[in-house]
Amino acid sequence: MTTITVTVSLPQFQTLISSPFNPFPVNSPKLNFKPPLKSKSPIPKLKFPVTRSQISGHFPTDEGSSDSTVEILRVPDDWFEPSTALQESEWLRVALQKWLDDEYCPEPTNVDISRVASESYYRSLVEKTADLGDILLNMVSQLQSLSYQESFHGPFSSANAAVSLIAQRLDQL
Q1: pTM of the predicted model as reported, rounded to 2 decimal places
Q2: Residue 15 to residues 25, 33, 137, 154: CA-CA distances in angstroms?
Q3: Residue 130 dihedral angles phi and psi, to the nearest 5°
Q4: Distance (Å, rounded) from C-alpha 148 to C-alpha 146?
Q5: Percent of the chain with pLDDT over 90
Q6: What would the pLDDT profile of 128-152 be if each residue is shown by its tens digit?
Q7: 116 within 8 A of 142, measured Cβ to Cβ
Q8: Do 45 and 7 contact (CB within 8 A), yes or no?
């Protein structure tokens, strides 16, 4: 596992840790950082583990090793065409619902999750959003509108599963 330094602005850092759906609370035992009280630098540096990818667009980390790479995950530009975007979003709806049913158990919420994720993905594609990170954030935002009270899922786990399926599809190209 390689560690890279992620640079974020103080407002971005504060937004990250103050979000009600924060997947990384500051006092989490898995993360080993604390917000700076007063820093000479206005941009705190955080370290997160990153795994190597098969997708092109690699950038060397501080260590400069060829094994230490960060990937840029982007959907192909031809997926922005409305008819292709519709096909891809329908593929995601079916694949995500199957994955949710297989991973946990079939439940009515899976239908809603896959529908909302698919609609969000379609919107992202027709708006020419190519970066999977941006697509993930858009999807989480949309998935937060659902109730997960009687579900094994949440907006982050559902969006992560959807983007993981999209990344697998990209690997098959």
Answers
A1: 0.61
A2: 11, 15, 14, 20
A3: -95, -30
A4: 6
A5: 50
A6: 999 999 999 999 999 999 998 888 8
A7: yes
A8: yes
